[in-house]
Amino acid sequence: MIRLQISKVLRVAFWVCAIAVLVLSLVPITAPMPSTGWDKTNHLLAFATLAFLGRGAFPGRTVAVLAGLLVYGGVIEVLQSFTPDRSAEWTDLLADGIGLLLGEMLTWLSWRRVAKQP
Description:
By secondary structure, the chain is mainly alpha-helical. It contains 4 helices and no strands. It starts with a helix and ends with a helix.
């Protein structure tokens, strides 16, 4: 019962985060927005968070979640190529992929730690 409730909360958090990443990726650069100070770490942090939330929200679907998020990153890059203030960059997609790997590692370490608890 509690696991189902946690899964529902994680799904809502995942979709809210996914929409926030899309909006922040497409708004004009002149708008004030949160940042780590370097574009690539923004991508890394965003996609690590999405991977972590996605793995918790959709347990047992690791490959689908991670592959879907990588495609999502690619779609964002394509959409950015149509905006006047943004540009598509392969290095952004690479940063997304590294973020996904980092998120997967954090998920694995978290579940490993939880499993060790009595």
